[in-house]
Amino acid sequence: MSRPRKKGNRGLPEGLYPPARPGWSYRIRHPGTGVILSIGAFTEAEARQLHAVVYPKLLTEAMAAQAANLVQRLRVAGGQVAITLDQYIRGFRREVLPELKRKGGTKPLAESTRSDYDTALRLAEEDPVLQLPLSEFAHPELGPMLLRQHLATSKDNPSWRNTRRDALARLFGYAVEIDGVLSRNPCDLIKALPTPERDVYIEHPHLNAIMSKLEFMSEVYSKVIDFAYIVSARVDDVLSLTETHTNETGDFVEFINTKTGQLLRIEKDEEGHLSRLIEWFRRFKRKQGVISPYLVVHPVLPRKKGAPDWLTVEKAETMSGNAIAKTLGISETAWRKRLKRHDLAEALAMGAARSFATNRSLRGQRITVDQLRDRWNAARAAAGLDEYGYRLRDIRATALTDEAAAAGGTPTNKGGHRTEAMRWRYVKRKDLPMVVKNHLRALGSKGN
After folding, report:
1. How far apart are alpha carbons 52 and 58 in whole angstroms?
2. Dist. CA 182–CA 172, nearest whole Å
3. pLDDT for 21-50, tens place per residue?
4. Cα(424)–Cα(169) distance, rounded to whole angstroms?
């Protein structure tokens, strides 16, 4: 029960309050939350009119919320606790998802899949459409209909929509089979949308242009793209490699493909590119003073960036001192001081100001897929290649396609795929000839 109204407010209807100060607006108190808000009315007559329209609606909403709370309390008192879907999702994300295994197996979910499921379930948890008792979703028509409405927000992205549907299917499956709190899985009636196969091959001049922009951020970001290309694995698998996944001389990299579960051993090439890359990452860590089990880490020390490739002496002669300074990331005063001591070519060669490639909290830490993807996207934009839509994960398909070309047009086992169909799926160039050697003799020959 709210406290009695003040003496000066007793002539106003319930919930309506006079201005807090002269010249301010009248106010209304929300009957449910008790929050007081200004209503933009500066006369009592106008305030009463607005109050007569708004307050009954607020009162109805407050009574409905109070009634729903009472029903819930009565169910609890009677031994029938009606848990809502958002409550169930909250518990599932906290207690079950971290230990969830792959469907039909005993191996844990890939970390990327677990992260996607967590995001999908959080979206469902926060959707007002789904904040109903869990039992409602067992209805053969209502349950699937509500979930389709929820998933419709991702209809333009079939792959993500299917991931969200799979996450909910695992949740409701657990409620049916393990907890026994639901009679049926509503996702059984929701079909996955067909997803077009991604058919992208990164042309090498474009790949080199993106790597050049990454190198301008820090050489390690360019080198890790090279590493992902040579290993030809998923980027997350490459970034997860530690010193224990290779030997001291870097003759091979041995790891488990997290999606197929296949143990892979990538041995060094004849020219030693793999070994040199592994040794480069080890030298980089020593130079940066980083002690980490991971091969690939963010830089720690500041570096002096060089001028962009396009900022030649000829180009700089057509630019103002302020424009050059902005390009180099230094002040115009600093640029003028350079020109007093050096000629234009030498001043440009001094590059930009010393700066860090990453923020303080990431220095020396393992590079994650999300962090590398952000840098890849920025480098792609800087290279003017956004129109091609190259994604970080396209590096793997490009590498496996190049491996197939080197092997005479036939896909290899380097991707860790156990079926021929999956090996061919990663060959993105359709102009590769299938090279075969002739073993037949001319029909008219007589043993010659």
Report:
1. 11
2. 8
3. 888 888 898 887 778 888 888 888 898 998
4. 30
